[in-house]
């Protein structure tokens, strides 16, 4: 992201803020994995949105004295020689001024002594209360210092408000630069699905596909997955958030792969379901083809002016019709639609926002009725999951299928970021057959 982009974002938040106010945006803490080893560091998405700065122990202050008098302050870690030996270089204060375009930078270890100075004449503090205990403590400590240092006849009145509703609205509409990052996340995620499908053979373990996906992400410049990769063979696909990934895959099963990389902080998210041995059985193909038709219907319907709710209803109607034809459900079509008879087999939502978080922030509106606009990014992911204990005909038991693409709403429709991996059942069989003779 360019400097201009970060300044534009900060300016947008400042424009919502009242005069004599300050917004505090904290970076994420390091999380301990075990004793002295830590989980890979993942920056807080909001802090990243305003800074592109990937260190812990930092806070950005945006201070608005009046409409034309605003400035920014960063508290961040010192770049000490001792730290350099153990952890490598930190950005430090001097470089932060230039690199992050802040007006002032102070060492993090002075935060309890210095923070209150910037909040002295402020009447509103915008702060994401309850997100991090350490951040709440820093804010309340600063408030207490302001109170205790005020003249005895004046009790300062400072209001705490949450900036998240504003910031999460800003994040919902993706800029051109954000769309480019999402496009690359989608492209790399699709390449990873392709290479996983290429090496898939009966007898392999689910985690071996996970490894191939991770290898491909890294190969193309995306070091981390955007979420825990799901590789679910056979009936494991009916477990929506299956991440054990430890089972052997057998001929005759389908395998559901839900994996996306993170690129510049932006998430890829896509799912494909393919036969382990490259050939769909009759019942598998019947279920699979319904889900493919559902994705294509969604891709056709998503455009500016519609809503997630409207598209979901159209997709559900279509799926119920097809399940009725297969006699998986029985009854009157209109009554089945009125009662959402597909729910026992499709129990999650069709779409979610996607951006810095895989399930991104931003209001969906009442009952998912938010009007879609160009620049909004979302997934489309219909699925059908027929558990082994289901009462439907035996031949469908244990079949779980999900297909997921990632789109951006454009001026006249949508752009599919993950279309490069084939979805049609015939196309998958051809692709998997051709890979054998390569
Ligand atoms: Mn998803």
UniProtKB/TrEMBL annotation:
GO terms for biological process: proteolysis. Keywords: Aminopeptidase, Hydrolase, Manganese, Membrane, Metal-binding, Metalloprotease, Protease, Transmembrane, Transmembrane helix. GO terms for molecular function: manganese ion binding; metalloaminopeptidase activity. Its cofactor is Mn(2+). Signal peptide: none annotated. Residues 1-135 form the Aminopeptidase P N-terminal domain. GO terms for cellular component: cytosol. The chain crosses the membrane at residues 12-32. The keyword Protease applies. This is Xaa-Pro aminopeptidase. It comes from Candidatus Erwinia haradaeae. The gene is pepP.
């Amino acid at each position: 992201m360019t400097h201009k982009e970060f300044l534009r974002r900060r300016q947008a938040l400042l424009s919502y803020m009242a005069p004599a106010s300050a917004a505090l945006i904290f970076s994420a803490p390091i999380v301990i994995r075990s004793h002295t080893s830590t989980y890979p560091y993942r920056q807080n998405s909001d802090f990243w949105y305003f800074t592109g700065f990937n260190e812990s122990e930092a806070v950005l202050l945006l201070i608005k004295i009046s409409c034309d008098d605003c400035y920014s302050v960063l508290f961040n870690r010192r770049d000490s020689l001792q730290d350099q030996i153990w952890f490598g270089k930190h950005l430090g204060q001097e470089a932060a001024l230039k690199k992050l375009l802040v007006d002032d930078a102070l060492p993090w270890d002075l935060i309890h002594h210095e923070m209150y100075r910037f909040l002295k004449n402020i009447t509103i503090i915008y702060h994401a209360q309850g997100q991090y205990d350490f951040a709440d403590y820093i804010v309340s400590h600063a408030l207490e210092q302001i109170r205790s240092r005020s003249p005895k006849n004046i009790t300062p009145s400072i209001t705490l408000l949450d900036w998240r509703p504003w910031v999460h609205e800003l994040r919902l509409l993706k800029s051109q630069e954000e769309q480019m990052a999402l496009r690359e996340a989608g492209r790399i995620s699709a390449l990873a699905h392709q290479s996983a499908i290429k090496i898939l053979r009966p007898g392999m373990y689910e985690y071996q596909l996970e490894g191939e996906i991770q290898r491909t992400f890294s190969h193309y410049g995306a070091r981390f997955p955007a979420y825990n990769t799901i590789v679910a063979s056979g009936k494991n696909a009916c477990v929506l958030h299956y991440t054990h990934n430890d089972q052997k895959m057998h001929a005759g099963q389908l395998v559901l792969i839900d994996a996306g990389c993170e690129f510049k902080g932006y998430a890829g998210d896509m799912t494909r379901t393919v036969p382990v041995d490259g050939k769909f059985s009759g019942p598998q193909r019947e279920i699979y083809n319904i889900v493919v038709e559902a994705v294509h219907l969604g891709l056709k319907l998503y455009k500016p002016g519609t809503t997630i709710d409207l598209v979901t209803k159209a997709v559900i109607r279509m799926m119920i019709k097809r399940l009725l034809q297969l006699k998986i459900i029985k009854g009157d079509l209109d009554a089945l639609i009125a009662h959402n008879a597909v729910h026992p087999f499709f129990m999650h939502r069709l779409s979610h926002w996607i951006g810095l978080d895989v399930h991104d922030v931003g209001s969906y509106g009442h009952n998912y009725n938010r009007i879609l606009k160009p620049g909004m990014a979302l997934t489309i992911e219909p699925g059908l999951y027929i558990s082994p204990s289901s009462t439907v005909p035996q031949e469908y038991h244990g079949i779980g299928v999900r297909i997921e693409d990632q789109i951006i709403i454009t001026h006249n429709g949508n752009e599919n970021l993950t279309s490069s991996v084939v979805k049609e059942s015939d196309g998958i069989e051809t692709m998997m057959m051709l890979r054998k003779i390569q």
